[in-house]
Design goal:
This protein is an alpha+beta fold. The chain has a domain of 225 residues. Helix content is 35%, strand content 20%. The protein contains 11 helices and 13 strands. Strands 1, 2, 5, 6, 7, 8 and 11 form a 7-stranded antiparallel sheet that branches. Strands 3-4 form a two-stranded antiparallel ribbon. Strands 9-10 form a two-stranded antiparallel ribbon. It is extended and about 105 Å long. The termini are far apart.
Length: 372
């Protein structure tokens, strides 16, 4: 077989195409590896950019105040966090969502230390120990290490009906960039309410703290129904907390003594008064940052006596006259009482002045006495 110029050209063209096909194969593999890596790491880069570390408290803030609130799920505004009790069409309440993340080892939770919380590795909660402490049935799914174990919890074993409140730790921070005072939610703690074997009042058991930044991207994907009149799920759980749609009562403020309001004020009246004072301080702090202009004119509503037009004056006089002239007698009948102004007789014009006005000039007018 003779090798012609045509064969040589075909061979050269095939050799030139080989690097292109090989490069395309390499690009396709790297793309697949990147997608698998993102799928295993949890939230996507877009979710991390949108929701990650946006609620963290600035360390260089010139002013901040720590506030602890209790969210009672029996109140009407807080019911979206409790219902539905069971999973319905993929919808679940907040505690069931948290337990799924904890059991799947997707988030870290920390010990409840009552005002001395430090979210570091030393205070990290061991999931298996926490489940044993609160008597929650589980099944271990072993991982490579003990810290990477995941746990399977049946839906019926999740004690959603016993989690009747949440503790919320927040910081009110003065934002230098925006020049406003804004609240930032730092962490959330589910609280179990359990009655003893002999009945009585339920005892509260705080379970763990979870950082809000760690669960915010998951809350933003869970839609909730906030109104009985409108069944459309227009808000997410993240909107619920960010827009402060919950009704939370202050039970503690960060202080040097690390004492709650109940410890500082013994009577319920004093505790309610202290809560109102704290709420007023938080609302008025932002206004106190600004200095009012002394030259600014404040528009006030005109009073009755400050009527500017003659028509307004006449209206005010008529109203005053009606109020004084009508009274109610003891028998239920209205009697008219003449006002003091009506008793005063109007000055009568003299005859000379009246006749002078009729004549139209200042000429004297002789009066003739009428005789029979």
């Amino acid at each position: 077989m003779k090798i012609t110029v045509k064969h040589i050209l075909v061979a050269l063209s095939l050799c030139a195409m080989l690097p292109i096909c090989e490069a395309q194969t390499v690009v396709r593999r790297s793309s697949t590896a990147t997608s698998n890596k993102n799928a295993q790491s949890g939230p996507t880069l877009r979710a991390q950019t949108q929701y990650g570390n946006h609620t963290s408290v600035a360390t260089d803030a010139p002013w901040s105040r720590g506030i602890y609130r209790q969210i009672d799920l029996q109140k009407k505004n807080n019911r979206p966090l409790y219902f539905p009790e069971e999973v319905i069409d993929g919808q679940k309440n907040l505690f069931r969502l948290l337990m799924e993340l904890v059991a799947g080892n997707e988030i870290k939770v920390y010990e409840y230390l009552d005002g001395r919380e430090v979210f570091d590795e030393a205070n990290e909660v061991q999931v298996e120990e926490m489940l044993e402490r609160f008597h929650i049935l589980y099944e271990v799914k072993a991982g490579r290490t003990a810290k990477r174990n995941t746990y399977i919890i049946e839906e019926s074993d999740v004690p959603c009906n016993e989690v009747l409140s949440y503790y919320v730790k927040e910081h009110w921070v003065f934002d230098q960039q925006a020049s406003v005072c804004r609240p930032v939610i730092v962490a959330i703690c589910p609280v179990l309410h359990r009655v003893g074997d002999f009945g009585g009042e339920a005892v509260r058991y705080p379970m763990f703290w979870v950082k809000y930044d760690d669960i915010r991207d998951h809350l933003s994907q869970q839609y909730i129904m906030t109104d009985d009149m409108n069944n459309a799920r227009n808000y997410t759980m993240d909107d619920y907390f960010t827009l402060r749609m919950f009704d939370g009562e202050i039970y503690k403020t960060q202080n040097l003594q690390n004492m709650s309001i109940v410890q500082l004020y013994p009577t319920p009246e004093a505790q309610d008064s202290a809560r109102k004072v704290i709420e007023q301080q938080l609302r008025s702090f932002d206004k106190a940052l600004w200095v009012t202009d002394p030259n600014a004119e404040v528009a006030e509503e005109p009073k009755k006596d400050d009527a500017t037009t003659p028509a307004d004056k006449a209206t005010v006089k008529a109203e005053d006259k009606n109020e004084k002239s009508s009274t109610r007698s003891s028998r239920g009948t209205s009697t008219k009482v003449k006002s003091s102004k009506s008793k005063e007789s109007k000055p009568k014009a003299s005859k000379s002045s009246s006749s002078r006005s009729r004549s139209g000039g200042n000429a004297p007018v002789h009066s003739v006495r009428r005789t029979r």
